User: What shape does this take?
Amino acid sequence: MAPRYDTLFYDSHCPLCAREIRTLRKLQNGNLIFADIHEQHGNNSQVPGHEELLRRLHLLAWSGEWVTGLEATARAWSHTALGFLFKPLLWPMVFPIASRIYENWADRRYERKYTCALGANDHRHQP
Assistant: This one.
């Protein structure tokens, strides 16, 4: 059976993200490919847009399925011996809460880091 590789798209400009990727690189079993969002060029219709990639963690599964957010995190860590620690995040009673926490964190991270840089208006400070 041929190896099945997943590709994790990550934000190398985010210190927390970069730290997690360094850890994943060390611990992974060799079937996880890392793609820096900031090195993605061209108009590949298969890959989500730059802003979408920055807003949520994205993983392209070996099957061609896109997995995002908390599910992408759990799937990426499943390529390590520590993957079992992330599986409970996907349990039906845990996932809605854990996913909401992840999404709130991801939204705040994006707003703080990229809203001004991408030229979007931040309406929180307007009357």
Notes: Confidence is low (pLDDT under 50) at residues 118-127.
